[in-house]
Specification:
By secondary structure, this protein is α+β, with helices and mostly antiparallel strands. The protein contains 3 helices and 6 strands. The chain has one domain: Beta Barrel (Ku70, Chain: A, Domain 2), CATH 2.40.290.10. It has a 6-stranded mixed β-sheet. The radius of gyration is 14 Å and the shape is globular. It starts with 7 loop residues before the first strand and ends in a 20-residue tail after the last strand. It comes from Neopipo cinnamomea.
């Protein structure tokens, strides 16, 4: 990440679980709409099963009319790292992904996918088209 510039900085907030400052770094896709559309605070509205997300992603890819972009979220401070780890553990232990509740103009769906350092990137998201 040291060689990349972050494309967004703000809060991730899931009430009763965690709230912290985070930076988003580009991984794959076009980020123009994302950087314009993301609010100062991403509100996590709930959980969703990975199966549901991947079914939806496959339909989007097949349609060819929408873009998928992937970012990596990184906490800003050590204190943010603790809250980040709490949210990661929350989703991982339940085998669920997070769903953003914000209403955005261009970005229609935003999912938080907890990947551990040794986890492989889900095959639905590769190959990467970007800095990786």
């Amino acid at each position: 990440l040291a060689r990349l510039n972050f494309i967004w900085k703000g809060f991730i907030n899931m009430p009763s679980v965690a709230k912290f400052v985070i930076k988003a770094y580009p991984v794959s896709g076009s980020f123009e709409y994302l950087t314009e559309d993301l609010p100062d605070s991403i509100q996590v509205g709930g959980r969703i099963s990975p199966h549901t997300v991947w079914d939806y992603v496959e339909k989007i890819k097949a349609s060819g009319t929408k873009e998928i972009c992937v970012v990596r979220f990184t906490p800003v401070t050590e204190e943010d790292q603790i809250s980040y780890a709490l949210l990661f553990a929350y989703f991982s232990s339940r085998k669920r992904y997070g769903v953003a509740a914000n209403n955005m103009k261009q970005v229609k769906d935003l999912y938080l996918i907890p990947l551990g350092s040794s986890d492989k990137v889900p095959h639905h998201l590769v190959p990467f088209d970007g800095p990786g």
